């Protein structure tokens, strides 16, 4: 299926992968993989390329189930427990975040990921566009963590991280870090980062000779873990979401649209 074309070759419509992401079926990248697996049809024809264009009113289906119109954009705070992987399907058979969520939540996407053993705030959304927007480093939102680590460190050593650090050829941006408590052979540290590179906090503290044995994300930009209980999910009110994103981005994403 090659999408819609007008006379003269002008194309109209929206890319199928984008439509699937907006409907909460999957992120745009994952939607492209689903299309490659020939699991998506439009008007009864199997879609073979994510470049396929579709228009309103066409019968779009994923694994035989019709994909409805775009639902209202929603965001949830989730207190991820230790021991869950942030993926829809784990090849090693480990339990996933999405298997642990209440079924009534429906299909959602995570905003970024947390490692298997990292606890704390994980944002969830039913909209691929919102997920991408919240992940962009350009928004400047800080991710805040509390880390318990085995070893010794001084505040002066932590202060030097404010200039960033290069580890094994990888450059990490400025880190705000505060030594909160010394507890036996462990230290508790609060860290704030903006990039969110893979296993960034663990890599930086390992560079200082510390072994992280507990890591909790307490904030993602303006959204806080607060007193949310482990395993609990709570929706962010639409009004609050719009206030945090600003009028322009909220309008682009259709937040608050009926």
Automatic annotation (TrEMBL):
It holds the Pfam family S4. The keyword Isomerase applies. Its EC number is 5.4.99.-. SUPFAM superfamilies: Alpha-L RNA-binding motif (SSF55174), Pseudouridine synthase (SSF55120). SMART domains: S4 (SM00363). It catalyses: a uridine in RNA = a pseudouridine in RNA. Keywords: Isomerase, RNA-binding. The keyword Nuclease does not apply. PANTHER family: PSEUDOURIDINE SYNTHASE FAMILY PROTEIN-RELATED, RIBOSOMAL LARGE SUBUNIT PSEUDOURIDINE SYNTHASE B. Belongs to the pseudouridine synthase RsuA family. This is Pseudouridine synthase. The lineage of its organism: Bacteria, Pseudomonadati, Pseudomonadota, Alphaproteobacteria, Parvularculales.
């Amino acid at each position: 299926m090659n999408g819609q074309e007008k006379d003269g070759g002008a194309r109209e419509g929206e890319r199928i992968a984008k439509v699937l992401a907006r409907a909460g079926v999957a992120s745009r990248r994952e939607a492209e993989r689903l299309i490659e697996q020939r699991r998506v049809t439009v008007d009864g024809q199997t879609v073979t390329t994510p470049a396929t264009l579709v228009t309103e009113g066409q019968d779009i289906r994923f694994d035989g189930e019709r994909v409805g119109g775009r639902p209202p954009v929603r965001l949830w705070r989730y207190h991820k427990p230790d021991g869950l992987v942030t993926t829809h399907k784990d090849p090693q058979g480990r339990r996933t975040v999405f298997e642990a969520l209440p079924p009534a939540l429906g299909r959602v996407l995570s905003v970024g990921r947390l490692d298997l053993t990292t606890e704390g705030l994980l944002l969830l959304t039913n909209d691929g566009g919102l997920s991408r927007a919240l992940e962009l480093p350009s928004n400047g939102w800080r991710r805040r963590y509390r880390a318990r680590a085995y070893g010794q460190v001084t505040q002066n050593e932590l202060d030097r991280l404010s200039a960033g650090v290069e580890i094994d050829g990888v450059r990490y941006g400025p880190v705000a870090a505060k030594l909160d408590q010394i507890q036996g052979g462990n230290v508790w540290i609060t860290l704030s980062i903006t990039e969110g590179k893979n296993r960034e906090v663990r890599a930086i503290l390992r560079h200082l000779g510390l072994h992280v044995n507990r890591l909790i994300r307490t904030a993602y930009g303006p959204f806080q873990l607060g007193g949310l209980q482990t395993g609990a999910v709570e929706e962010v009110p639409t009004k609050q979401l719009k206030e945090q994103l600003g009028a322009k981005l909220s309008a682009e994403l259709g937040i608050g649209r009926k």
